[in-house]
Queue: 2 jobs
Job 1
Amino acid sequence: MAVSTPRRTVHDTLAGLERGRRRKLKERAFATVLFTLTAVAILVLALLVVDIVLDGFTRINVDFLTRYASRTAENTGIRAGLTGTLSLMVLTALVAFPVGVGAAIYLEEFAPDNRFTRLMEANISNLAGVPSVVYGLLGVAVFVYALNLGRSLLAGALTLALLILPVIIVAGRESIRAVPLAIRDGGLALGATPWQVSYRQILPSALPGMLTGTILALSRAIGETAPILVVGAVFSRRADNEPWYFMEAFAALPVQIYNFVSRPQEGFKIDAASAGILVLMAVLLIMNSAAIVARNRFSRRY
Amino acid sequence: MSKNWQVLLGLVVVLALITAACGGSEGSANEELGEGGDEEGAGGEGGELSGSIEVDGSSTVAPLTDAIAEEYAVEQSNVTVNVGVSGTGGGFERFCAGETDISDASRPIKDEEAEICADAGVEYVELRVGTDALTMVTTPETDWVDCLTTEEVTKIFGEEDAATTWSEVNPEFPDEPLEVFAPGTDSGTYDFMVEDVLGLEGSRQDFNASEDDNIIAQGVIGTPGSWGFFGFAYFQESADQLKALEYDAGDGCVAPSVESAQDDSYQMTRPLFIYVQQEALERPEVEGFVTYYLDTVPSLIDEVGYIGVPDEDLEAAKSDLQEAIDG
């Protein structure tokens, strides 16, 4: 026994080493597979971006941003679409943020745990997965016709607000849940009412998460073509959209790009369309950076 | 905390400013003075008109209306023309509901649509503004075919016994595979080919369909021996990579061209119209725009890729319009 033990130990150690080596090999193989998959995803994305940049970058200039559309590809511009999209975003945010945050606070802090609440919660989660064109059809039925808003900027913004509400509510609830329980209990223990705790403690702490959620949701809305096309974004117009003239007809960047792409001339379908896509991506990136800045600026540490 | 709110407020203000800055006030036509507008502006010359004109309808006609609107904006910067693309049918639906002033159409209004308009009390005037020549194409290497008869096109695109090789279309053609690229069933171009050119109820199902003519062009270019069709403008843009086929409607082969479409010898053409609501014509900005439309369309239509109507037809349209204006 005493003699055989070291032999066995050596044997075991060798076997263990072998097993370890094999495990490590497996691990490395798995990591390599994962890396390859990531690389493929990123490579495809990069190719797409590079292709668009190559086609569109030289086409972007001040004129392109400040001119209305033209029948000649060299003179065309995206002013109408750009002002339309920015106005849409302002109105959408103004509607969706308060409603979404309100709903999130209610569901997290005040709603009784009953069947109705659970039904609402399930519905909100489901709504986040509904295809966007369905929201467009809803927008036409409710905002354009039932509420008689016509094919206006406001109808478009309300439709987009509806589209992103589930996302804002879900993100809002997540960030409320992330506020430490001690803060809430401490507040209540000190005699604050639930309303005071929500307003003075929870809301400020959860705000960065809510802002991030809202801005990311808006970046989803900005690229949506189907719902606003259904609600009635125009193919072309030569006037600016401004958020305060919300009953006017509206243009939008994705629809304008679609307009460019559908034309026969290379100058439109390649150059102008790519440039339009780049502008859309730039607006999107600016919004996403704003989300990061907001999160860092407002975040509280406990 | 209060500082945070200030930053947040700042963000909102900046966003609003960006919008406002992009929005520059001088170009916009926000004041809706249309109804109360001066009568003297009615001639459209010199007078400053304002208001907005709602146009919707065919996506084929939209680029033409848009081109006219572009030039009109130079003269009347306070008139906004909003052009939508709900399709000819969708456009008429809105037109007859009184939602739009002008409807773009790539076919005449159907009887049932006209009935809906009549029931709603919407009167209108039909103005022919151009012609779109449908063009059948193949690749330049397809050297065995230059011209197709209606019968042959029926074999290629028709519902029954759809040909899968060129020899099935015509025994004189070689036994080469035939692939078909065409507009999807939702498009007016498809309807026109099936119903008006071939006189059929439906087409073959096994073709490569796309609502985007650019994709059809790409498909034909990339597939030797394929066959497809779309608007003349899309052919012109890729004329070096495609071969346009002549069409024989019974009176001999005719190649698609501006001349053959204008003198009606090329028969695969469809008319482009605008329909103007009678009541809207009382608004000076609508009257001005439509008058301008007919005056400028001959000089702009080539650029958009369509074919102008013969002079006498244009004159007829002008007198129809004048009649409608005089009411």
Job 2
Amino acid sequence: MSFISLLWVLLLGSLLGLELIGKVPPTLHTPLMSGANAISGITMLAALTLIVKAEGNVPLLIIGSVSLGFALFNVVGGFFVTDRMLAMFSRKPSNKK
Amino acid sequence: MNLPVIIKFVIDLIAVLLLALGIKGLSKVKSARDANRLAAFAMSLSVLGLLSYYLGTSGIAIQSWIWIIIGSIIGSLFGAILAKKVPMTSMPETVALFNGCGGMSSLLVALGVAIFPISSSIENFDFFKSIINEVSISVSIFVGAITFTGSIVAMAKLQGWLSTPGWTQSKGRHFVNIVFAVASLIAFFDLINGSTSSIWLLVIVSSLLGIGVTLPIGGADMPVVISLLNSYSGIAAAAAGFVVDSQLLIVAGAMVGAAGLILTQVMCKGMNRSLVSVLFGGSLSSQSTTSSGSGEYTNITSCSVEECALTLEAANKVIIVPGYGLAVAQAQHTLREVTKKLEQNGIEVVYAIHPVAGRMPGHMNVLLAEADVPYEQLKEMDVVNPDFPATDVVLVLGANDVVNPQAKNDSSSPLYGMPVLDVQEARTVFVIKRGMSAGYSGIKNDLFDLPNTSMVFGDAKKVLNDLIGELKDLGVGEK
């Protein structure tokens, strides 16, 4: 990928993000923030790349592994906690009365 | 193009599509839970895509597998445990912690690449490309470090582990932060010029900058900061995407970055604060104590729990205004007991939710949902405001600034212009509160002086418990 096309990707991704969140009820702001936060843990892919390309360089492997750990902490924790919050919303209407 | 490249391309495309659908779905109550799972699925898919690509091309060494597995298991395990254990009231801090770790991850990737250049950046080396590489590494480290230290400070402050030190409220802090910013800029250009050692300078000063910027901000503004830092962690991820040449990372990071900015804007609007004043204005309470809103209360009516119960019993329509004080007192379950009794007596009960009730948009909804309050009874501000004139009793629990009529009537008030709940329109207003202390803005609340407002002093949980007892004595909800 050339640098210019990566910049296009960046631009379009940002526009997509702006567009997606246009109208959100305040109710969902906290779960949304938490869900988006989990997605930002996508850096785990970069950490994976680092580990795969380390070619036996142990310090690099360790850095990559720690980085992967931090990213997955963010991703797994983020999605679980979002699900916990959302479960409370969706459960309610059914067991009313 | 060979097969693994095509497969990875297709998987990445699907993952981006699903992530976008996930964020979109998270903005509707009905689809939110499925959308969250969809996003989680998309993330796992993207990992499979990346692994299969390397398996199909260069292969993955056993040694790499070992480190992948170690990192994944430890990270996922801690994340899952924390997510299951943490109480709902600490949600803002938890999001901050997760967010900080995301920033740390981006920082480490960039650091790793900077110290040990990986093979991909060496093959087809050219000057232009190496500049881009250095820039993206620097941005990733800079933003990643700010995200990490900023989030940790935010978490510590929300948890009450860290107070706002006095010196951070002086003008001097701007000077200190400017020094940090300039130093990181110098390190940044040094790094581009090929001085690898300045990378540590960059790490240190950007970490300090994250602390220096977050520390002076008051607790009430912290959610805005967390939301902004959430946006930063997206930017850090996008920068890391440039470092390792991954379009998927860039798109996902940019989406989160942009979405986080919008959310930050929305939260600022709800609190009537501009982003600039949140970031550079310091703690609100320290500056506004001397400003217009302060003054003595002249006409406070205080009443007993018994009177409150009698009035409630005679009401047809009751609106509850919950605030962060309710959450702090962990009284949402007790509140639910009270409203159940009222409902059994045929009294209509509605909860009025201010957009920033509970310090974070939607946080109060989560807390009340946890206490089994039916979702349909939670009414947003714009929906519920016209109902107040037809309401018999309003119960204000641990909320203060969001029910201050000054925001509408007094153009000299710092709160002026902030959207508030028009509780004073109701026939009777009960404010349950520990004492006469001001809210987070540090401003006097004119509501307390109004003739139709009565104060019930005491801890929210205790008052509500007493209220249950009184209502029982009156025979409310005994049928």
